[in-house]
Amino acid sequence: MDARLDLAGLTGARDPIAHGDVLLDVRNVSLSFGGVKAIADISFDVRKGEIRAIIGPNGAGKTSMLNVINGFYTAQHGSIVFRGRERRAMKAHEAVGQGIARTFQNVALFKGMSTLDNIMAGRSVMMRRGLFWQMLRHGPALAEEIEHREKVEEIIDFLEIEHIRHTPVGKLPYGLQKRVELGRSLAMEPVLLLLDEPMAGMNLEEKEDMSRFIVEVNRQRGTTIALIEHDMGVVMDLSDRIVVLDYGKKIADGPPEAVKTNKDLIDAYLGVAH
Amino acid sequence: MLYRTAGQFKTSYEADFALFPVRQDALLLGVILLFAWLIFPLTASDFAFQTLLIPVLIYSLASLGLNLLTGYAGQLSLGTAAFMGVGAYACYKITTIFPGINLLVALALAGFFPAAIGIVFGLPSLRIKGFYLAIATLAAQFFLVWLFEKWAWLYNYNTSGAIQVPNIRMFGVYVAGPQAASITQYYFVLFVVCLITWFSINITRGRIGRIWKAVRDMDIAAELVGINLMRAKLSAFAISSYVAGVSGALFVFLWRGAAEPNLFDVQLSFRILFIAIIGGLGSILGNFLGAILIVALPVVLNWIPGLFGFSIESAVLQHINTMIIGALIIFFLIVEPLGLARLWGIAREKLILWPFPH
Q1: Three-state SS for B232?
Q2: Between chain B's N and C termini, which has fewer beta carbons within 10 Å?
Q3: Chain B contacts of A153, Cβ < 8 Å?
Q4: Is B163 helix (H, G, I), strand (E, B) or coil?
Q5: B71-100, pLDDT tens digit by residue?
Q6: CB-nearest partner of B210 from A93, A120, A135
Q7: Nearest CB to A112 within list B203, B213, B224
């Protein structure tokens, strides 16, 4: 069985929003911690099926933006509309139910668990069997476990991590850990995938692999991706549209070619007397 | 050679999910069960039942309860003894209110009381972690022991303030109380311990176990894969306290025969925490290894001087025992935080590879 074929259409079908429509709309969001304004009145949108990059120098508010999107922080002003529904505050674990998954800048895996268990943990919200069947681990509970294992094996196959299936992730090298983390977020079958610096600290080869996985996830599963990345070569090649933040403000937004020549962007990165 | 895994292939996910993917492990467990169910009971003396076999099983179960909470869900607790006490008193009240009740049913029901109280005292875990949580569970320890002393209804208003286990029969045979034979009590305890251990293994391998381990390893990431932290932590407190409560009821009904409130003091909590640490946090097997070590050590120490033809005062022996246990805890915390179970894991990996070095 070709796992790749199966991956397509896993998520696309259940979403009423058509390809190219606005999936996530961030409207005038502001967030501050005490006196520090992390995000000041930022608006942008993410369209279904695209790869949207968020770039900017350190401390620009990129990660804070992702945290607001998946409910980890609550914005003081503005609103977020996801799949046509507006929301202000929610618990972080509710974001998964709405179809938002994310990875972290510094790997946030469950270190004591195997690769397989880590990815299976990504599906724990979809598993339903209660304590009674869990205690027996026969019949429905085992059937459910095997059903989800098959889905997880498809992801393991896709990410080419078969050989480390039973290895505790704490023992894995950094590049593989990043891959397992991507696997865990894919296991949640997200509509919108948020990637926080998926290629930080990787060598060229690992970056190429990771870029390939991101593009394939986007094309084959139809998953919309919003990513933060510092490697400009990768960002310009991968993304359909880019939003540029600096000091919590949006300074540019548009396709790579337009952003590349933007004066403010160059100033932000190369520095200019403020 | 003994542990060679070559040639054992798995052709289905079900086979890969089996408890013992390696055939020799299943064989080894079979041998251990054979000893536990047949050879020990046939050969053991009354003394061996009362000082080794039964306490090892009961302490293992108590430690298993703690391990589900601390080793799997990562919530440090110092209140195990109090939850055991709630189980024991609940079982006592159930057997006095319904005198003819089957003891197994009484035990199963008694577990729900510590489970409920465990949830209440687990509420601070939603806000605080680690050592601060341990202090909060210490509140349970002191409050509940105080309650056992002051609430006379719990011990049926008798003057001694202690609970006495009555003679309880099951299918015509005495299983608890002064008239019960050690061997019946042993089989009763063994049955309960085997059953709960099997359930616990299944829980820790499935969805709930993964959720607990995720919360233990990184709670923020667990929340962002959609795990409800409140439910995960409180379910760990409930199930852990249930198991601890059942072990407490066994402790009094099938072993000690009577209990005063201070039997469940903080000393016992620490003893069980030591068993879990020495045995290995996050392991089911570890509870049994730890309990064997802690229970057998004083017995062996008593026996060694006689072997060499000299005698040591029992007070001195007790000090030696305390010193050895203290040293072992320091040793394990520094050298092998995952305890005896991890040592066995390393030995097993070596055996699988043997005679090759890699």
Answers
A1: helix
A2: C
A3: 13
A4: strand
A5: 999 999 999 999 999 999 999 999 999 888
A6: A120
A7: B213
Q: What residue has token string 């996910």? A: B13
* Interface size, chain A vs chain B, as Cβ–Cβ contacts under 8 Å: 105
Contact B140, B236 (CB under 8 A): no
Q: Kindly report the CA angle at A265 between A261 and A267, in degrees rounded to 5?
A: 110
Structure tokens that stand for B223 in this block: 């929340």
Grouping H, G, I as helix, E, B as strand and the rest as coil, residue B21 is coil
Q: Return the sign of the alpha-carbon dihedral for residues B248, B253, B259, B263.
A: negative
B151-203 pLDDT, tens digit each = 988 888 888 888 888 888 888 888 888 888 888 999 999 999 999 999 999 99
Interface residues on A facing B, Cβ-Cβ cutoff 8 A: 70, 72, 91-93, 95-97, 101-102, 104, 108-113, 117, 120-122, 124-125, 127, 129, 131, 134-137, 141-142, 144-146, 149-150, 153, 184-185, 188
pLDDT band for position B11 (cuts 50, 70, 90): confident
Query: What ipTM was estimated for this complex?
Result: 0.84
**Alpha-carbon gap, residue B89 to B83, rounded angstroms:** 10
Fold of B43-353: ABC transporter involved in vitamin B12 uptake, BtuC (1.10.3470)
Cβ distance A134 to B214 less than 8 Å, yes or no, reads no
For residues B11 and B1, give the distance between their C-alpha atoms in angstroms, rounded to a whole number: 24
What single string gives the DSSP state of each residue in chain A? --HHHHHTTTTGGG--SPTTSEEEEEEEEEEEETTEEEEEEEEEEEETT-EEEEE-STTSSHHHHHHHHTTSS--SEEEEEETTEEES---HHHHHHHTEEEE-SS----TTSBHHHHHHHTTGGG----HHHHHHT-THHHHHHHHHHHHHHHHHHHTT-GGGTTSBGGGS-HHHHHHHHHHHHHHT--SEEEEESTTTT--HHHHHHHHHHHHHHHHHS--EEEEE---HHHHHHH-SEEEEEETTEEEEEE-HHHHHT-HHHHHHHH----
Query: Which amino acid appears at position A261 of this protein?
Result: T
